[in-house]
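Hi R.,

Here's the chain you asked about this morning:
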Amino acid sequence: MQKRVITVLMVLAGASLGISSLPLGWEMIGQQQNNWLNNNVTNSLIGALIFYLLSLLVVNMISSGIQKTEKWLSNFSLTYLLFGVVGTILGLIIGMIVSLPFYNWEVPFANSVVPFLLMILFGYFGFQISVTRIEEWKKLLAPRGKKSDTQDQQLLDRKIEDHFHKYKILDTSVIIDGRIYDIAQTGFIEGVLLIPNFVLDELQYIADSGDSLKRVRGRRGLDILNSLQKEDEISVEMYDGDFEDITEVDSKLLKLAKLLDGIVVTNDYNLNKVAEFQNVPILNINQLANAVKPVVIPGESMEVTIIKAGTERQQGVAYLDDGTMVVVEEGLHYMNERLRVIVTSALQTAAGRMIFSKPAHAERGIDSDSQAQENKT
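And the predicted structure, written out as tokens:
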């Protein structure tokens, strides 16, 4: 739509220039008396055609320039733009007044170039004075009231661009983890939780996976997103854009965070390191959990499914729904079985959580043997 508007405006400009400028061109080539060529209709059509052909070459560049200008202007607050425009206009008016005496000079340079330079100079000074002292102008233009009201207003004023990041961009791992929902409910994460469309696509791909473990994790992530969106106290937005030139989801997240000046929320250790290298702000849920200690305590029981062998002999490895690894001593004998285990210890690192456990019936067996020996004695 934007390109069509640019084309139409260029055609109208070409028609107008054709009516005003082509008669001079016909006169230069001796065709001023040719009424068939030198008339408003023909001149406007020729000018419109020329500019239409020209628009085919430059419309993409103009549209790109407009989009870049819009993006650049969106980085500034409305107050900054308003004071900047007003200051520039006042500077140009003062520059025009100051340059009036130079128009009467007979020196060619002084009566043409100097007024133009003075207007540019005063316009620049007006802009700088306006935007660098916005707080002082606010105080000067604000209505006189009680001193306490002014102090309260100063306390309420906050510079968003200095102390506040609006968007918290969630990656796939932190959504599947699920703890982001509890953290957001407490209010410790301020601003808007942003869910990029490419992250949602990855979650859907995991939920449709043929691997049952991946399928459960993907569906868990989708359930967490639905729960976040249903909470009135939590602000959640979707980002429909994509970076087609980038294939990796993590790279897309980092680029989006740079464009929006946002913070990536994750529990991916590798993404955390890459973000630090690229100077992208990041919140690591595992680091937060490490600061407040693990939620699993020794002696607590849980049910897990042993899915693979551990690194040590006779160890089995299971995973919770949020991806936490559970190492079960002597768990290799219960491969692909549902088993109740007792937590013996938990280790929290920046790379994630590890829970060490042993089968619950093994502990009961030890207790029974001890009791039998006591009875014999």
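The longest strand covers residues 338-349.

Let me know if you need anything else.
M.
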